Amino acid sequence: MADAAKALGLSTTRRAALVATVVCALAFTLAVPLRTYLSQQADVAEQERLQRELQREVHELEQRREELDDPAQVEAEARRRLGYVMPGETPYVVQLPERSTDAGRDPGTVPDGASGAWYEQLWGSVTRDE
Fold it and tell me: N or C, where is the chain less crowded by C-beta within 10 Å?
């Protein structure tokens, strides 16, 4: 190789610069396709993840549909979610006790510091001098 370099009249510095230029050109030539490839691989991985999630959701919905094919399940859902009762049944609604902070107060009384309608309270808070 030294004979070829001498025949072309290239010094060591020029040879190093030529090699560096060739290496940079190869790097730039490979950089864009490599970046595109890696980007596409990330997109493919994301789409596969979304597909798995959607397949899982479809599976869950198919199971739910199979559950609702049973008339007893539909009746239980109607009772639980919609509050339906069968003719002749008496529906009961259980009310939980109020919080301890609200228990001592009359339901019709206005809390301290609040008097009048909400818009009066709002206007009072805007025009109040502080």
Answer: C
